[in-house]
């Protein structure tokens, strides 16, 4: 599957960086090479695998504030579950535009939840009211559907003022923006930053105690039992190191892609704030647009009508609804996500095709 498809779904997942793939292969060789050893075994091959995991942990830690520890998990969803369920709170306050991994976990596992509303710009107000009984406040760094950048450091201080912990889902911001310094826990996912699928991490500030979700061999400081994959850890580590090295270059490239797309899509309305936003996310709408037809007409462009998890459900996006859009407006919206490996030619071509397909619908 390639290369007649232009991939514009970087919020759903990013391509695996060739450097990360290379680092993984070292840990995926055959029986003659003892790199398959269990990283939790005390013999020499086991210790070599464990050393690779620790090196990867340090690389991932470079994306995060000082003064905490990185716990590897199977995904960011697992990391968010670990944070919400593991901290033992009875009351979570969370933004209306959190990922389902936060919203559904809190609703299912915590006695009381408070939803912090967002404005039509897709931003949680800095003075959002946090009830005094809140034990945990969860607000994401960058929204996955509209790309808006939330005032997480200010909200973290408000959380601390009522004695609550602050959890930040930094899945869409990690490696792109400075880490949320005020957070007590931060969730990451490797496959959103050019690393492999099947691995995430929870950063936990020193002094914050969590109960484990998964019991067993006591790996990951007792918080997440189960044998780690050196290959996945190594791929995550190299992807994180690359993100640090390439932050400026990646950001400049994104700006050029954004300007190109924004100019070509001049007749479309932007959903969410224009500037307080990660510019690798262009969520736009055209009144009266039939998105299902658009997607079927544009099979050569892989883009999304919402988040990967929600699209296909037929339900209007909870993020766009929380921003005050009508059902019709949410259903005439599309998300274009681009990044490091998108070329200017590809974005220009895809946007021209979007315009032509919308014009063919007479909107
Ligand atoms: N949080 C956000 C903002 C996301 O975009 C996603 C993935 O779509 C997740 C959490 C879940 O990440 P994972 O796929 O690692 O479980």
Total number of beta strands: 12
Structural class: alpha/beta
What is the first-to-last residue Cα distance?
Answer: 31 Å
In the residues, how many domains can be counted? 2
| Major sheet: arrangement of strands | 2-8-7-6-5-3-4
Mean of the pLDDT scores? 96
By CATH reckoning, the class of the largest domain would read Alpha Beta
Classify the helix fraction into a percent range: 25-40%
Bound molecules: pyridoxal-5'-phosphate
Secondary structure layout:
Layout: E1 6-7, H1 18-25, H2 44-61, E2 68-73, H3 76-86, E3 91-95, H4 100-109, E4 112-116, E5 136-138, H5 152-161, E6 165-169, E7 185-189, E8 200-205, H6 230-245, H7 247-264, E9 269-270, E10 281-285, H8 291-297, E11 301-302, H9 318-322, H10 327-330, E12 333-337, H11 344-360
Parallel strand pairs: 1-11, 3-4, 3-5, 5-6, 6-7
Antiparallel strand pairs: 2-8, 7-8, 9-10, 10-12
Bound molecules: pyridoxal-5'-phosphate (PLP).
